[in-house]
Structure formats: C-alpha cells, structure tokens
Amino acid sequence: MLNLIERRKEIVRLTEANERVDVEALAKQFAVSAVTIRNDLNALSAKGLVVRSRGGAIASTRLTRELSLQEKYRKNLSVKRQLGQTVADLIDDEARSLFLDSGTTTEEVALCLLGRTNLTVTTNGLNIATALAGSDGVEVRITGGALRKKSRSFYGRQAEESLRYMHFDTLILGADGVDMRVGVTTHFEQEASLNRMMCQAARQVILVADSSKFGRRNSHVICRLSEIDMLVTDNALPSEIQRTVKSQGVRLHVVGRTT
Predict the structure, then answer these.
(1) Is the pLDDT of residue 64 over 70?
(2) Angle at 147 between CA 145 and CA 218, to 5 degrees
(3) Confidence at 195, pLDDT banded by 50, 70, 90
(4) Least confident of 63-67, 103-107, 219-223
(5) pLDDT digits (tens, 9 = 90+) for 73-92
C-alpha cells in the first residue's frame, strides 16, 4: 500500500492523465476510505495541484494567477463598462433586492445603478458598497465578516451567517475563471463557499464575465455552468463556447466589443 505522499503524488498523476478523477473510484483503487481521498484532494487543491470539484477533482494545468484588485481594474476596462451597463439594463424595475458579488466587473454594474430608486443591494464587496454609498435611492447592506484586502471582499462565518435567512430577486455573480467542464471558479476557498450560498439565496443568478475569463480554471469551484440562469459576456467569446453555454440551458446575452 502506498504511503500518504506516494498516494497523493499518484492522485496528481492520474488527474493530469485523465483530466478528472472521482472520489469513489480513487478510494477503491487505493483501498482507503472516501473520507481519506477527500482529505487528499482538499490538501492537493490547497496547494494548487488539482482543482476540487463536486465528487472529485480536475487537473490544474490551466490554473491562473490571481490578480490584485488594481490589476483587475486595468484589465479589459472598456469591455467591463459595457457589461456593467448591459446588466444594469437587464434588471427591471420590479426587482427590489439584489446581491452584487465583489469584483471589478460587478462594480461597473453598481455604478450603473446609482440612479435607481427603491432598490436594496446587499454585497460582500467593500468596493461595491463604496460605489453605491452616494445613491439616495439605493439601500446598501454588507455581509460583514473578515475583509480580504487583496480583493476588497468580505468572507468567513459572519458573512455566511448573514445570508442564511435571506432571499434575493437577483444575484449578479462575478468569476475569476469559467471552464466548460468545471464551471465557475475562483481563487479563494472561503469566497467560493460564500458564493455558493449567494446562489442558493437568489431566485435568478446572472453571471457577468468578459470573454478573457473563459477557458481558465482556478482552485475552487463555485457552481456548474448549468446552475446559472443568464450569462452576460462580450462578442469575443468563441462561437463554440457560446453554443456550449446555450446547451447547458443558460440564457446568453452577448454585447458588442470595441477593443
């Protein structure tokens, strides 16, 4: 029987060779419990050697580096502004409660909501709350919790507890990466956990992500693509990916791109 280090090394090799591994299959192969394999996968995911997914893990060969908030602001800014305006236009006047995920693209949505009235916006993003603070017609609520300075986002038990008994008309969700097989991903485990709770608390989930986010995998999975109601992206997204998105039952809204 392989020791812990040997087993985990072999799990990484199998994941890279097959692109995906399953907990139950690995437990049977290595003659250990499913709990042991889950612990292995969680430890490997924390090191960035695999990407944890529901029931198993996938290869991490396409993992991307996390950018600082300042770097994200500069990346595809004009496109993000188009996406922000489009998402804001899609939010009809009947919507009274929104959750805006942290991020720079979602901040552009917030800026386009400044003129709205009778709207309550809850957010885990310090930058989102700051952007909306000057709007008399928008009530702003934050989840609270620990502040992750790199992304200006709140996370942790307090943030999760604040969502436990809440419901929203619409969640505007951002992403660090979107992979057709894995789904919507992010770099930070506790942020992914909070994102999953957001999805469960919302009647409608709108994912807003520019085309550069597609084909990227990050360490932690938020949800599968089929769990999203609508995707708002730009027209640089390849047509084959657009077809795949639609095949998952997701409404696709593509906006023009000038850069």
Answers:
(1) no
(2) 105
(3) very high
(4) 63-67
(5) 455 678 888 999 999 999 87
Put residue 11 in one of left, alpha, beta given phi > 0 → left and psi -120 to 50 → alpha.
alpha
Residue-level pLDDT at 60:
66
Given this model, what pLDDT does residue 220 score? 87
The residue count for the chain: 259
